[in-house]
Amino acid sequence: MPTLSLRAATPADAELVAALHAQSWRRHYRGAYADSFLDGDVVADRLQVWSERLTGPKDTQTIVAEDAGEAVGFVHTILDADPVHGALLDNLHVSVAHQRRGIGRRLMAGSAEFVLGARPGSGLFLWVLEQNTNAQRFYAAVGGESADTKLVPPPGGVEGRLNGRPRGIRMVWPDPTRLKGCGRR
């Protein structure tokens, strides 16, 4: 994609990142998250989260992917999130209209470069919903390995935002150097 560029997010990006995040949740988290939440205040909830994250500590990085100047995806990484698995790739979302174009791979590579530059030797991991089989296939295709599962915490700690007791799968990359080249096709 010759017009694709990656850049570090700034506090001014909170609204666009929140909108991308909410759009992705609405499409991929139905069934696990309550429709009343997804169809209701999910954008406001995500805006509050991203307003805080983008002005937060420097042990995190958020990268925005832009195609011809339009924000089409982002990745957020937190260093030192787990003593065994290392850095947490906490969010990776690409707008549905721009999926299957290598943007997710480029964002994964950007996350890996951040981790390796800040914490050489650290691993990288993320959590993916059990029901999100497309994302699981993507992560496996870029070298992720399933490690364990846990119950998904409700967004914002509000129990009514979940349906039942959805589970997440931890995908791990003990050596994120394998991801550095995954953004090239």
**What is the string of helix and strand elements?**
EHHHEEEHEHEE
Helical content stands at 25-40%
The tally of helices reads 5
What is the rounded Rg? Answer: 16 Å
- Unreliable segments (pLDDT under 50, ≥5 consecutive)? none
Query: How far do the termini sit from each other?
Result: 10 Å
User: Structural class, from secondary structure content?
Assistant: alpha+beta
Largest sheet: spatial strand order: 1-2-3-4-5-7-6
Give the averaged pLDDT, no decimals.
92
Major beta sheet summary: 7 strands, mixed
* Beta-strand content estimate: 25-35%
* Shape descriptor: globular
- Give the tally of β-strands: 7
Describe this structure as you would to a colleague:
With 185 residues, the protein is of the alpha+beta class. It contains five helices and seven strands. The protein has helices at residues 14-28, 35-38, 42-53, 103-118, 133-141, and strands spanning 4-8, 60-67, 70-82, 86-94, 124-129, 145-151, 167-173. Strands 1-2-3-4-5-7-6 form a seven-stranded mixed beta sheet, sandwiched between helices. Strand 2 (60-67) and strand 3 form a beta hairpin. Helix 1 crosses helix 3. The longest helix is centred in the middle third of the chain and has 16 residues, at 103-118. The termini are close together. 34% of the residues are buried. The mean pLDDT is 92.
